[in-house]
Design a protein that fits this description.
homodimer; alpha/beta; Arc Repressor Mutant, subunit A; Rossmann fold; 2 domains; seven-stranded mixed beta sheet; two-stranded antiparallel ribbon; 9 helices; 9 strands; DNA-binding
DNA sequence: TAGATTGTTAATCGATTAACAATC
DNA sequence: TAGATTGTTAATCGATTAACAATC
């Protein structure tokens, strides 16, 4: 089943599997069955096996899955077995939070550029990276072969900057601006729409009857 | 159809509808059809009508929907027609980013407390709110009748703090810690798992064939 | 070998899309 | 009224769950 198209729902569960595997791996646990994973993740054992089998047969009948092995497979599947060059665009609150985001440091994400349009902070250094004017964005993205751009800017300039990034060959955009960006199909977009998340929270606080519990 | 259980997928689309209604409302557009909404949101007209009809019949045959009216209805549905008292727990990068999060200011979210465990910042003020030691959390949450707690702390202490919040009658938790919190069913949890989002991005950057395009 | 647990197919369930009668 | 567009039912599509043969 390595060829069929894999749905977003499956992909969104992979980081969860990975997180729990790290957790039990750190406890020194060597093997785990889909049933045990089911218990700790809250997903069904059937779904876990089904999900993993989209990518290969990583388990062994009568045994289960080797924790370290499966972790490494998931890293490969999720593409975090290799390094990425990253730029942060917009160095307000969110941008600076992301610079120090611990998720970056563990894995191979390297922030090679920070951009803003405020004269007050341009020229400053943050984590040894000089904050540059957005006008220098294209030069840096091209020269440093940047893979991922983080958009931590308001909605208004986001599409224009995105278009420039695309022209410079960016491969992925992690977008924190509250806007749906238009992109060619070969550039991957992942949105973090905080407004949507917060409104989902308030919805369920007022409509507990629909609340499905922790997802 | 006002009574059937409404799925998460529907709820997650409401903020999107709301955002586009604000957008066209600001342009002075008075009425909009599901077909027009379809064009700008990228969802099908059928789905839009279906979604809205879970909550009531807001449109009018032959006319469409009144933009302002629908906006107000969505505000009621999503529960942002009323104020919320909020505390921020953990005043590192993410916590301070959220304090200034513009989504709060537009709506009725009021930050009534900020907590941290670092002696260096306890006692400081941020946006006129004094940063307090986490030991004072329960007192403030109880006294100020806090509705929502934002967890911007590491995974390790998150469950313990959550248990305290629950004991003080918190109604909702907006969780930025990379952990699946255990909660009674009457306390609503909304997770922002940045690690999951980032790994989804890298997955699709490496498996473009599965990339469904902007979602 | 016997027991356990996977990989995978089939059955069920739920969500999306299509169609159209109702009605403004 | 005629045209447009909703609200809603029925059809389709896809994802989850159940079941079990394969096999370690």
């Amino acid at each position: 089943m390595l060829d069929a198209k894999i749905s977003v729902a499956v992909i969104k569960r992979l980081p969860k599997y990975y997180r729990y595997l790290e957790l039990i791996g750190d406890k020194g646990i060597i093997r785990v069955s889909s049933q045990e994973l089911s218990k700790i993740t809250g997903l069904t054992a059937s779904q876990i096996r089904q999900d993993l089998n989209h990518f290969g047969a990583f388990g062994q009948q009568g045994y289960g899955y080797n924790v370290e092995e499966l972790k490494i497979e998931l890293e490969k599947i999720m593409g975090v077995d290799k390094p990425y060059n990253v730029v942060i665009i917009g160095f307000g609150n969110i941008g600076s939070a992301l610079l120090n985001y611990s998720g970056f440091k563990k894995k191979g994400f390297k922030v090679v550029g920070i951009f803003d349009n405020s004269p007050e902070i341009i020229g400053n250094k943050a984590n040894d990276v000089v904050i540059k004017d957005v006008s220098e964005l294209e030069e840096v993205v091209t020269r440093e072969k940047v893979d991922i751009a983080i958009l931590a800017i308001p909605a208004i300039p986001a599409q224009e900057i995105t278009d420039k990034l695309v022209a410079c060959g960016i491969k992925g955009i992690w977008n924190f601006a509250p806007i749906d960006l238009k992109l060619p199909r070969n550039v991957v977009l992942e949105n973090v729409h905080l407004d949507g998340s917060l409104l989902t929270l308030t919805y369920y606080m007022n409509s507990l009857k629909d609340y499905p519990g922790v997802r």
